[in-house]
Design brief:
Number of strands: 13
Radius of gyration: 29 Å
Length: 322
């Protein structure tokens, strides 16, 4: 009997020992697995200038497009550097501090500084398009400028790309849905009106007009506001027009982007209000009906194509039509 009991105890002890060894081995394997560096996921991003392999959730990001900076800020994504050698949109003023490296200006990047930073990703747009190869030599570079001939499609593609890179797909989708809803309401309102409009940019006493499919053509193409002139030359810089032209077209609404308010031109720039509201313009329907609407150039000129700027553009036009 004693022999049987001893044998039973011996078997039990051996079983417990083996189980403990197996458990420790499993724990060690898990511990080793958790300490092993995970392979960084890489995405292939298709953009206007080609295809670029980009690490998911890159840490050091250099941004040369304020519309993209606007979107990254709205999504809570940090950046390492931006061009502070010019005008940073006032609502993004927090980036105009030494917390963020200054990598030159929009048209004159500081390649030496960018190279020192060794970024994981560089994002550029139209003003840097000719320098794409130089950027690519330093770090993966993608182009996220807005194509104004297909503004909303291009804007959404860029926002979606940013969402994919930074694991913010759900947030981007939700914000785009909100913008779509606000645009639908504005479009219904605008298309139901008989009044037409002329979109202008004013700088240093000169006036340029923009029509459908142009830089500011989304007012007509997307928001649904009727254009007073469908034949305005499509150009980045707009069609140069005279005050007599505005009087001749006599729009119900005159939308104005004051470039001089955000870009230094001479001493203190020029005031679009002083330039436009002269004796000739005072004879137009837009002036008489108090329908000259001054749009915020921070959104319209400096940082178009951002989640915040596009949302604010919708609000400005809707408010202007009231």
């Amino acid at each position: 009997m004693k022999k049987k009991l001893s044998l039973f105890l011996l078997i039990t002890i051996i079983a417990i020992f083996m189980a403990a060894c197996g458990s420790n081995s499993s724990s060690e394997e898990k511990s080793n697995a958790s300490t092993e560096p995970k392979e960084t996921e890489e995405l292939t991003i298709k953009h206007f200038l080609g295809e670029t392999k980009v690490k998911k959730n890159p840490e050091k990001v250099v941004v040369f497009d304020f519309g993209t900076l606007d979107t990254l800020d709205a999504l809570g994504v940090e950046v390492a550097a931006l061009p502070r050698g010019g005008t940073v949109p006032s609502y993004l003023e927090k980036y105009n501090t030494d917390k963020y490296e200054n990598v030159g200006s929009l048209k004159e990047p500081d390649f030496e500084k960018i190279n020192e930073l060794q970024p994981d990703l560089i994002i550029i747009s139209a003003r840097q398009v000719d320098l794409y190869e130089e950027f690519q030599e330093i770090a993966p570079t993608i182009y996220l400028g807005v194509d104004t001939t297909r503004y909303m499609e291009s804007f959404k593609e860029n926002a979606t790309t940013i969402g994919q890179i930074f694991d913010k797909e759900a947030e981007v989708e939700a914000k785009l849905a909100e913008i779509d809803e606000s645009i639908a309401a504005l479009n219904e309102k605008a298309t139901g009106m008989d009044e037409n409009a002329l979109v202008t940019l004013v700088e240093d006493g000169s006036v340029s007009a923009y029509g459908p499919a142009s830089r500011f053509g989304m007012i007509h193409d997307v928001f649904g506001v009727k254009a007073v002139d469908e034949k305005i030359e499509v150009s980045t810089h707009g069609q140069s027009v005279s005050f007599e032209y505005i009087v001749e077209k006599d729009p119900n609404y005159l939308f104005v982007v004051d470039r001089g308010a955000v870009v230094t031109t001479g001493e203190g720039g020029s005031s679009a209000k002083q330039v436009l509201e002269n004796d000739l313009i005072k004879g137009t329907k837009a002036y008489k009906e108090n329908h000259i609407v001054y749009l915020d150039p921070n959104y319209w000129y400096l940082s178009g194509g951002g989640l915040v700027s596009v949302s604010e553009m919708v609000k400005e036009i809707e408010a202007g039509l009231e």
